[in-house]
Amino acid sequence: MDGDSGDASQLLPDKSRLESSCHSEVALLALMEKTGYSIVQENGQRKFGGPPPGWDGPPPPRGCEVFVGKIPRDMYEDELVPVFERAGSIYELRLMMEFSGENRGYAFVMYTSRDAAQRAIQMLDNFEIRPGKFIGVCVSLDNCRLFIGSIPKDKRKDEILEEMKKVTEGVVNVIVYPSSTDKSKNRGFAFVEYESHKAAAMARRKLIPGTFQLWGHSIQVDWAEPEKDVDEETMQRVRVLYVRNLMLSTTEETLRQEFSCFKAGAVERVKKLTDYAFIHYRCREDAITALHLMNGAVIDGAVVEVTLAKPAGIKDGSMSGRKHGIGGGYGDGTFVLQRDDGGIGGGAMQEYPSLIGAGDTERCMFPLVPGTPISPSSLHSVKPSQLSSAVSLLEFYCSRNSWSLPEYYLFSAPGQNGIPLLIYKVVIPSIRSSYMPDKLCTLLDDAKELAAQNTIWSLGTVKHLYFCNSAQGTNKNEGCLDATDIKLE
Predict the structure, then answer these.
(1) Domain 145-223 has CATH 3.90.1200.10
(2) Which residues cross the membrane (predicted)?
(3) Span 161-213, pLDDT tens digits
(4) CA 202 to CA 199: how far, in whole Å?
(5) How far is the CA of 171 from the CAs of 1, 127, 165, 167, 220, in angstroms?
(6) Considering 134, 196, 208, 390, which has the largest number of Cβ atoms within 10 A of its Cβ?
């Protein structure tokens, strides 16, 4: 009797899965019949629509797709489509699938318009899709750009473009920045743009680091950070110009004179950092005039590139620092300073989701007036919006949970040119747990920040917003290398 009971219990899971599978198939067939959309499974994903019935023309433009995370593993299109249709007409829904038949917990929904995609984010981000189950929704950017590092610095743009077209298909353009010290040389990296995300993905797969060389050099290949879309209304108010490709010797006073040559006193202030600068104007009209006049101008022998600066840290929780990005985010207390060179030699951040809402609290300094009352304080009195790094955020979290502060243990591995690669192991004694990221860094501060971000992520303390970038899988930095196979001694 006991034996029969044991055999029956072993069959129950398979029977349950079979019943669930049958229910899912019936529900999907009913959905197809009701909507007229097709459902096709390929390459580990199941695609609903794309295009929908009666669609004539190209797919919707960039910005129409959203990423959906934290989907219950036993939820499928028959439940998802009705929810996401509330925001607007769906062009296609791609649900990532496991071999077992369960979904992988995330999907991509492309709408027929950008307005519908924005409504989906507003309506469905942190939406309770089942009792106690909340999904996260954020914009999904179709990345068509690769970061190529460790290329010879004597190669010109046309040479790099020609070589990339030889070894990969679908190359549209190559973006190369000259060295800040010698404008006849590049910075040792380039951004390669492809005609589609698929072409870029195929190229990335082909150019596997360690197995592929250009001009006899082993190269580093990864996704470039997609340029964040800033809404048109915000950009219409921008009166700051972003200027790159400056000589290191160019002064702020020179820039002030050059950028106000058409109207005395037009420039409010200038902030130069190494070979790029932000020019703040008193009114937007003057900024636009200067943009047209100065883009491509020669300053101290260098041909400069001028664009409108994109405000950083607005509604996207971005932090100071750049990944492999080509940006013009500006900051002076209200906004966050960002670099345009992928962080080469300057402390690039990592691929973990941004954790700090840098735009929530302005970075300001105030004079300590004599007689101002000050008293001892602790992390308990600090607001999360006042934290500007993952290291401080991790300490804040440990303090809030009455844990001892995290301990950092430094390890290293051999790197190029005798420079060691660094990685921190984080130990939280109170919970007897340790955490280590899967990347090695060239800079000590980067290694510690990366270790803290990895720990926060591993602890599961980040809000639903932070997983949006991680599951889309985008960026590593120039300063960090995979450490999966490194053995620590």
Answers:
(1) no
(2) none
(3) 999 999 999 999 998 888 877 778 888 889 999 988 878 888 988 887 666 78
(4) 5
(5) 69, 40, 6, 10, 17
(6) 390
